[in-house]
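Feature request, filed as a ticket because there's no other form

It would be nice if the structure record came with a short human-readable summary line next to the tokens. Right now we just get the raw output. Example of a typical job, pasted below so the devs can see what we mean:
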Amino acid sequence: MTHAQPSLFEPDAGLPPGFVYRREFLSADEEAAIAAQLAALPFAPFLFRGVEARRRVYSFGWRYDFTAGRVEEAEPIPPWLEAVRARAEALAGLAEGALQQLLINEYLPGAPIGWHRDRAQFDRVVGVSLLAPCLFRLRKREGTRFARAGLTLAPRSAYVIAGEARQLWEHSIPPVSAHRYSLTFRSFR
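Raw output as currently delivered:
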């Protein structure tokens, strides 16, 4: 696995085309204010096919119901996250209002997220990492093996998954060592 410390925007150290990384996407003050708001949300355990994961989630705009296999409307993205959404859209090269879905993950120490690609209804994915760093792993099947890449997501950083990175690569996060939030914005196809 490659553990690259990428440049400010487009990493070149073996990370897939369409993956963009930006350090210091948020200021420390912005991060603290957002984390305080997130702490007040009524997070619920993430359920996947009846199995409860160790991370907790909350959705705005739309939520994906894994039991029903469909997207359902959720409460609108709140005003205190609108500026972050607008900056995420700009980072991803999207029009204002294109990121309509927001999944907030709360990772307590020991919580992972397994290998996956975001659901087919969604197009571009923009993640914002808060409070603690984590390893972000990527893999793509090549015959009987996997091509692999990875980087450490710093607190207050953001990434975009589009193009080849979105269509052909899966991603995961191994168990985290400290409390962390992620804001995952998505556009629809």
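Something like this underneath would help us a lot:
The chain has one domain: 3-42+54-188.
The first helix runs from residue 28 to 39.
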